[in-house]
Amino acid sequence: MEINMPTKKIQVHPETMLVHNGATVYRTHVDNDVDQGVHSYWFTLNPDTDDQAFDIRVVSPSVLDGHPPYLGADANPEFATATQEQINTWRKQWYEWNKKDGGEYQAIRKGLMDAIDRGVVKSHHDESVVPSL
Fold first, then answer.
1. Contact at 8 Å (CB) between 39 and 28?
2. Beta bridge partners of 38
């Protein structure tokens, strides 16, 4: 015997990432499910749908260039010969990069503002998003 539990779908207003030059940028959610959390790099200017969502790494490719050195020799050749002191420094830098409102968050905000200023992402009167890549 199969039992199907009732479910309830409700629409919630997305979290605002920033407002800049008249454009409001909203976070998108994994699988459109609030309980699964927000995407790290995907945003939308339309609060009603993420059908027109964009990846900040595409519209502002250099947005994450300021990240600390990677903690592995496959992505950071210097890691193989680094001292423990250097590795500890890099770990601290990653902690600062990843913490709430840290370096990555600030870089993403800067990239979003830059994309809006350059007109790469723009909001129209009907709130549709036009990524003009």
1. yes
2. 29
